Amino acid sequence: MKIIDTITPGTPFLSLEFFPPKERSEWPAFFHTVDRLKEVNPLFCSVTYGAGGSTHGDSLEIVSRLKQEHGLETMAHLTCIGAHDGDVHTFLDQLTQAQVDNVLALRGDLPQNSTAESSPHRPLLHASDLVSLIRGSHPHVGLGVAAYPEVHPEAASPAADMAYLRLKLDHGADLAITQLFFDNRIYFDFVRNARDHGITKPIIPGILPVVSLKVIKRIVSLCGTVMPAEFMAQLEEADRRGGAAEVQKLGVAHARRQTEELLAGGAPGVHLYTLNRADAVLEVTAGLLPLSATLRLPQEPTP
Predict the structure, then answer these.
(1) For domain 12-209+269-292, which CATH number applies: 3.30.450.40, 3.20.20.220, 3.40.50.2300, 2.40.40.10?
(2) 10 Å Cβ neighbour count for 116?
(3) pLDDT tens digit sequence for 190-248
(4) What angle do CA 187, 263, 176 make, to 5 degrees?
(5) pLDDT tens digits for 96-113?
(6) Is 17 marked active-site?
(7) Where are the domains of the chain?
Protein backbone atom coordinates (compact mmCIF):
# COMPACT_ATOMS: atom_id res chain seq x y z
CA MET A 1 0.00 0.00 0.00
CA LYS A 2 1.20 3.50 -0.76
CA ILE A 3 2.07 5.43 2.38
CA ILE A 4 0.25 8.49 1.07
CA ASP A 5 -2.98 6.47 1.14
CA THR A 6 -2.56 5.77 4.85
CA ILE A 7 -2.10 9.41 5.90
CA THR A 8 -5.30 10.98 7.23
CA PRO A 9 -5.30 14.78 7.69
CA GLY A 10 -5.72 15.64 11.36
CA THR A 11 -4.59 12.19 12.53
CA PRO A 12 -0.96 12.44 13.65
CA PHE A 13 1.52 9.61 13.22
CA LEU A 14 5.09 8.61 13.89
CA SER A 15 7.45 6.98 11.42
CA LEU A 16 10.99 5.67 11.84
CA GLU A 17 14.23 5.49 9.89
CA PHE A 18 16.70 2.63 10.29
CA PHE A 19 20.07 2.00 8.69
CA PRO A 20 21.45 -1.44 7.74
CA PRO A 21 24.08 -2.72 10.21
CA LYS A 22 27.58 -2.84 8.78
CA GLU A 23 28.16 -6.47 9.72
CA ARG A 24 25.84 -9.42 9.25
CA SER A 25 26.65 -10.52 12.80
CA GLU A 26 24.83 -7.37 14.01
CA TRP A 27 21.54 -8.28 12.34
CA PRO A 28 19.99 -10.19 15.28
CA ALA A 29 20.51 -7.14 17.53
CA PHE A 30 19.12 -4.89 14.79
CA PHE A 31 15.91 -6.88 14.44
CA HIS A 32 15.59 -6.97 18.23
CA THR A 33 15.67 -3.16 18.11
CA VAL A 34 12.99 -3.23 15.42
CA ASP A 35 10.77 -5.41 17.57
CA ARG A 36 11.21 -3.08 20.54
CA LEU A 37 10.25 -0.08 18.42
CA LYS A 38 7.13 -1.75 17.05
CA GLU A 39 5.40 -0.52 20.22
CA VAL A 40 5.69 3.00 18.76
CA ASN A 41 3.19 1.76 16.14
CA PRO A 42 4.96 3.56 13.27
CA LEU A 43 2.93 4.36 10.19
CA PHE A 44 5.96 3.27 8.17
CA CYS A 45 9.67 2.58 8.50
CA SER A 46 12.33 3.67 6.04
CA VAL A 47 15.68 1.97 5.50
CA THR A 48 18.70 3.88 4.27
CA TYR A 49 20.73 3.00 1.21
CA GLY A 50 24.49 3.56 1.15
CA ALA A 51 26.33 5.99 -1.07
CA GLY A 52 26.55 4.64 -4.60
CA GLY A 53 24.32 1.73 -3.61
CA SER A 54 26.92 0.29 -1.22
CA THR A 55 24.28 -1.41 0.93
CA HIS A 56 21.88 -2.24 -1.91
CA GLY A 57 21.52 -5.92 -1.07
CA ASP A 58 21.27 -5.37 2.67
CA SER A 59 18.63 -2.67 2.26
CA LEU A 60 16.56 -4.90 0.02
CA GLU A 61 16.66 -7.82 2.43
CA ILE A 62 15.96 -5.66 5.46
CA VAL A 63 12.93 -3.85 3.99
CA SER A 64 11.62 -7.22 2.82
CA ARG A 65 11.97 -8.75 6.27
CA LEU A 66 10.47 -5.72 7.99
CA LYS A 67 7.43 -6.06 5.74
CA GLN A 68 7.04 -9.82 5.63
CA GLU A 69 8.30 -10.95 9.04
CA HIS A 70 7.67 -7.94 11.27
CA GLY A 71 4.47 -6.61 9.73
CA LEU A 72 5.73 -3.06 9.16
CA GLU A 73 4.95 -0.86 6.17
CA THR A 74 8.34 -0.07 4.69
CA MET A 75 9.97 2.55 2.50
CA ALA A 76 13.23 1.70 0.77
CA HIS A 77 15.72 4.51 0.21
CA LEU A 78 16.95 4.51 -3.37
CA THR A 79 19.78 6.68 -4.65
CA CYS A 80 20.44 7.30 -8.32
CA ILE A 81 23.73 9.13 -8.79
CA GLY A 82 26.13 6.87 -10.66
CA ALA A 83 23.50 4.15 -11.09
CA HIS A 84 22.60 2.33 -14.30
CA ASP A 85 18.95 2.62 -15.33
CA GLY A 86 18.82 -1.15 -15.59
CA ASP A 87 20.03 -1.62 -12.01
CA VAL A 88 17.36 0.77 -10.76
CA HIS A 89 14.66 -1.14 -12.65
CA THR A 90 15.96 -4.42 -11.22
CA PHE A 91 15.89 -3.07 -7.68
CA LEU A 92 12.33 -1.79 -8.16
CA ASP A 93 11.27 -5.16 -9.55
CA GLN A 94 12.80 -6.88 -6.53
CA LEU A 95 10.94 -4.53 -4.19
CA THR A 96 7.69 -5.32 -6.01
CA GLN A 97 8.33 -9.05 -5.65
CA ALA A 98 8.89 -8.53 -1.92
CA GLN A 99 5.62 -6.54 -1.69
CA VAL A 100 7.48 -3.38 -0.67
CA ASP A 101 5.37 -0.61 -2.16
CA ASN A 102 7.22 2.59 -1.23
CA VAL A 103 10.51 4.29 -2.14
CA LEU A 104 12.29 7.41 -0.92
CA ALA A 105 13.86 8.72 -4.13
CA LEU A 106 17.18 10.47 -3.53
CA ARG A 107 20.08 11.70 -5.60
CA GLY A 108 22.51 10.28 -3.07
CA ASP A 109 25.99 11.30 -2.08
CA LEU A 110 28.44 11.95 -4.87
CA PRO A 111 31.44 9.64 -5.10
CA GLN A 112 34.53 11.23 -3.60
CA ASN A 113 36.29 13.81 -5.79
CA SER A 114 33.49 13.93 -8.37
CA THR A 115 30.56 16.10 -9.39
CA ALA A 116 27.08 15.24 -10.60
CA GLU A 117 28.09 16.24 -14.12
CA SER A 118 31.03 13.81 -14.07
CA SER A 119 28.76 10.83 -13.44
CA PRO A 120 29.03 8.29 -16.26
CA HIS A 121 25.26 7.73 -16.11
CA ARG A 122 23.99 11.18 -16.97
CA PRO A 123 20.25 10.35 -17.31
CA LEU A 124 20.07 10.03 -13.52
CA LEU A 125 21.76 13.16 -12.25
CA HIS A 126 19.04 14.34 -9.88
CA ALA A 127 16.33 12.96 -7.63
CA SER A 128 13.74 14.43 -9.99
CA ASP A 129 15.15 12.19 -12.73
CA LEU A 130 14.71 9.18 -10.46
CA VAL A 131 11.15 10.21 -9.58
CA SER A 132 10.29 10.43 -13.27
CA LEU A 133 11.84 7.04 -13.99
CA ILE A 134 9.97 5.33 -11.15
CA ARG A 135 6.66 6.99 -11.88
CA GLY A 136 6.93 5.99 -15.55
CA SER A 137 8.05 2.39 -15.04
CA HIS A 138 6.48 1.44 -11.69
CA PRO A 139 3.39 3.64 -11.28
CA HIS A 140 2.11 1.54 -8.37
CA VAL A 141 5.03 2.59 -6.15
CA GLY A 142 4.50 5.18 -3.42
CA LEU A 143 7.12 7.91 -3.69
CA GLY A 144 8.73 10.17 -1.12
CA VAL A 145 11.48 12.75 -1.62
CA ALA A 146 13.73 14.81 0.62
CA ALA A 147 13.12 18.43 1.61
CA TYR A 148 15.61 20.86 3.10
CA PRO A 149 14.12 23.45 5.49
CA GLU A 150 17.54 25.07 5.89
CA VAL A 151 18.31 24.81 2.14
CA HIS A 152 20.34 22.08 0.47
CA PRO A 153 24.08 22.81 0.85
CA GLU A 154 24.53 22.73 -2.94
CA ALA A 155 21.49 24.86 -3.81
CA ALA A 156 22.05 28.12 -5.65
CA SER A 157 19.52 29.89 -3.45
CA PRO A 158 16.52 29.19 -1.18
CA ALA A 159 14.19 29.98 -4.09
CA ALA A 160 16.01 27.55 -6.38
CA ASP A 161 15.86 24.86 -3.70
CA MET A 162 12.11 25.37 -3.25
CA ALA A 163 11.60 25.20 -7.00
CA TYR A 164 13.48 21.94 -7.09
CA LEU A 165 11.30 20.48 -4.34
CA ARG A 166 8.22 21.41 -6.33
CA LEU A 167 9.76 19.81 -9.44
CA LYS A 168 10.21 16.51 -7.61
CA LEU A 169 6.64 16.59 -6.35
CA ASP A 170 5.25 17.67 -9.72
CA HIS A 171 7.08 14.77 -11.38
CA GLY A 172 5.08 12.36 -9.27
CA ALA A 173 6.32 12.19 -5.69
CA ASP A 174 3.56 11.84 -3.10
CA LEU A 175 5.19 13.46 -0.09
CA ALA A 176 8.40 14.94 1.28
CA ILE A 177 10.39 14.15 4.42
CA THR A 178 12.62 16.89 5.75
CA GLN A 179 16.25 16.88 6.70
CA LEU A 180 16.74 17.07 10.46
CA PHE A 181 16.46 20.44 12.22
CA PHE A 182 16.48 21.62 15.84
CA ASP A 183 14.27 24.73 15.76
CA ASN A 184 10.63 24.08 14.91
CA ARG A 185 10.15 27.62 13.60
CA ILE A 186 12.34 26.61 10.67
CA TYR A 187 9.92 23.84 9.74
CA PHE A 188 6.76 25.92 10.08
CA ASP A 189 8.26 28.77 8.07
CA PHE A 190 9.40 26.31 5.42
CA VAL A 191 5.96 24.72 5.07
CA ARG A 192 4.28 28.13 4.88
CA ASN A 193 6.72 29.13 2.14
CA ALA A 194 6.11 25.87 0.30
CA ARG A 195 2.35 26.44 0.35
CA ASP A 196 2.92 29.94 -1.00
CA HIS A 197 4.83 28.31 -3.88
CA GLY A 198 1.96 26.00 -4.75
CA ILE A 199 3.18 22.87 -2.94
CA THR A 200 0.20 21.12 -1.39
CA LYS A 201 1.49 17.62 -0.68
CA PRO A 202 2.44 16.50 2.86
CA ILE A 203 5.80 17.65 4.24
CA ILE A 204 6.80 15.41 7.14
CA PRO A 205 9.34 16.83 9.60
CA GLY A 206 12.40 14.71 10.35
CA ILE A 207 13.69 14.75 13.95
CA LEU A 208 16.93 13.32 15.32
CA PRO A 209 17.28 12.69 19.07
CA VAL A 210 20.84 13.65 19.99
CA VAL A 211 22.54 10.70 21.68
CA SER A 212 26.20 11.66 21.31
CA LEU A 213 28.01 14.98 21.04
CA LYS A 214 30.60 13.53 18.67
CA VAL A 215 27.96 11.95 16.44
CA ILE A 216 25.77 15.04 16.20
CA LYS A 217 28.72 17.30 15.38
CA ARG A 218 29.63 14.97 12.53
CA ILE A 219 26.05 14.76 11.22
CA VAL A 220 25.59 18.53 11.35
CA SER A 221 28.85 19.08 9.46
CA LEU A 222 27.71 16.70 6.70
CA CYS A 223 24.12 17.85 6.18
CA GLY A 224 24.42 21.59 6.67
CA THR A 225 21.87 21.77 9.48
CA VAL A 226 22.35 24.69 11.85
CA MET A 227 22.66 23.68 15.48
CA PRO A 228 21.28 26.53 17.66
CA ALA A 229 24.19 27.96 19.65
CA GLU A 230 22.32 27.74 22.95
CA PHE A 231 21.44 24.07 22.41
CA MET A 232 25.02 23.22 21.43
CA ALA A 233 26.33 24.98 24.54
CA GLN A 234 23.91 22.97 26.66
CA LEU A 235 25.03 19.72 25.05
CA GLU A 236 28.69 20.56 25.60
CA GLU A 237 28.01 21.41 29.23
CA ALA A 238 26.09 18.15 29.65
CA ASP A 239 29.03 16.26 28.16
CA ARG A 240 31.46 17.91 30.60
CA ARG A 241 29.13 17.28 33.51
CA GLY A 242 28.12 13.69 32.90
CA GLY A 243 29.38 12.43 29.57
CA ALA A 244 27.30 10.55 27.00
CA ALA A 245 24.46 9.72 29.39
CA GLU A 246 23.81 13.38 30.16
CA VAL A 247 24.07 14.34 26.49
CA GLN A 248 21.47 11.72 25.57
CA LYS A 249 19.17 12.84 28.40
CA LEU A 250 19.26 16.42 27.13
CA GLY A 251 19.02 15.40 23.47
CA VAL A 252 16.03 13.15 24.05
CA ALA A 253 14.21 15.85 26.03
CA HIS A 254 14.77 18.33 23.20
CA ALA A 255 13.50 15.87 20.58
CA ARG A 256 10.47 15.14 22.73
CA ARG A 257 9.59 18.84 22.95
CA GLN A 258 10.09 19.25 19.21
CA THR A 259 7.83 16.29 18.44
CA GLU A 260 5.06 17.46 20.77
CA GLU A 261 5.13 20.97 19.33
CA LEU A 262 5.22 19.79 15.74
CA LEU A 263 2.20 17.53 16.16
CA ALA A 264 0.27 20.16 18.09
CA GLY A 265 1.16 22.74 15.43
CA GLY A 266 -0.33 20.72 12.58
CA ALA A 267 2.52 18.64 11.16
CA PRO A 268 1.02 15.52 9.55
CA GLY A 269 3.37 13.33 11.58
CA VAL A 270 6.98 13.13 12.71
CA HIS A 271 9.70 10.99 11.12
CA LEU A 272 12.28 9.98 13.72
CA TYR A 273 15.87 9.28 12.68
CA THR A 274 16.51 6.43 15.09
CA LEU A 275 20.23 5.73 14.54
CA ASN A 276 19.03 2.23 15.50
CA ARG A 277 18.82 3.41 19.14
CA ALA A 278 15.68 1.96 20.70
CA ASP A 279 16.00 3.44 24.19
CA ALA A 280 16.25 7.03 22.95
CA VAL A 281 13.31 6.68 20.56
CA LEU A 282 11.11 5.04 23.18
CA GLU A 283 11.85 7.90 25.59
CA VAL A 284 10.95 10.46 22.93
CA THR A 285 7.68 8.77 22.04
CA ALA A 286 6.42 7.29 25.34
CA GLY A 287 2.72 8.06 25.65
CA LEU A 288 2.96 10.67 22.91
CA LEU A 289 0.28 9.84 20.40
CA PRO A 290 -2.60 9.10 22.80
CA LEU A 291 -2.05 12.65 24.07
CA SER A 292 -1.63 14.35 20.72
CA ALA A 293 -4.43 12.38 19.09
CA THR A 294 -6.89 14.13 21.41
CA LEU A 295 -5.94 17.52 19.99
CA ARG A 296 -7.96 19.16 17.26
CA LEU A 297 -5.08 19.59 14.88
CA PRO A 298 -5.18 22.34 12.23
CA GLN A 299 -4.73 21.34 8.62
CA GLU A 300 -1.77 23.67 8.19
CA PRO A 301 1.06 24.59 10.57
CA THR A 302 0.42 27.75 12.55
CA PRO A 303 2.99 30.52 13.03
Answers:
(1) 3.20.20.220
(2) 14
(3) 999 999 999 999 999 999 999 999 999 999 888 889 899 999 999 999 999 999 999 99
(4) 50
(5) 999 999 999 998 766 555
(6) yes
(7) 12-209+269-292
